[in-house]
Design brief:
This protein has a domain at 47-135: Beta-lactamase Inhibitory Protein, Chain:B, domain 1, CATH 3.30.1450.10. It has five helices and five strands; from the N terminus they run H-H-E-H-H-E-E-E-E-H. It has helices spanning 3-11, 18-43, 57-62, 69-76, 155-160; strands at residues 47-52, 81-85, 89-101, 108-119, 125-132.
């Protein structure tokens, strides 16, 4: 093989043109960007979650006045929460919610269903009722604020509040001896 033949042979393995390799690179880059954007957008999608006991119409139809607590548990299952009212009997609450969740936003409660079963002192069903989100009231049990006396300082007042209160003759805190022989 001559040198000219070797050069021609090697040239057959090179890309035909620089534009062909650039277009392939652009296609791969575009596909990568589309895949990354789809992944980011999928993380921001909203989901609807169902939480708690899901009330069914047939469960309410099976509930009867005079049933015992054990019969209610076998029909509806364990309650979400219970309450005891002194001298009046117990109550079972079956609570379910539909919540809309997003990646960076706070959750939003779309719907709430509460099935309340009240018992008399003999532990038999006295009344029962179904409530929704519209029947409830929002109560702020803990505002997480501690009241304090005085006034609240702004950031600038905190930073510059001590300016002008320094005196050059101030020696600082006392450095009492405490050692032997002083």
């Amino acid at each position: 093989m001559t040198a000219t033949e070797v050069i021609r042979y090697v040239q057959t393995f090179k890309p035909k043109s620089a534009s062909a390799s650039n277009s392939l690179r652009n296609v791969l880059l575009s596909a990568g960007l589309v895949l990354a954007a789809a992944t980011v957008l999928a993380g921001c999608s909203r989901e609807i979650e169902h939480r708690g006991y899901q009330v069914r119409a047939q469960d309410i139809q099976n509930l009867r006045i005079g049933m015992t607590k054990d019969e209610v548990r076998s029909t509806l299952g364990s309650p979400s929460t219970t309450a005891t009212v002194q001298h009046q009997g117990d109550s079972y609450y079956y609570i379910s919610s539909r919540i809309k969740t997003s990646a960076f936003l706070s959750n939003e409660e779309l719907d709430r269903q509460v099935l309340a079963v009240r018992f008399n002192q003999l532990d038999q069903v006295q009344t029962f009722g179904q409530y929704t989100l519209q029947d409830g009231k929002i109560i702020d049990m803990n505002s997480r604020e501690t009241p304090s006396r005085g006034r609240e300082l702004t950031l600038l007042e905190q930073m510059f509040g001590n300016l002008g209160t320094f005196t050059p003759n101030d020696t600082g805190p006392p450095t009492g001896g405490g050692g032997f022989g002083q």
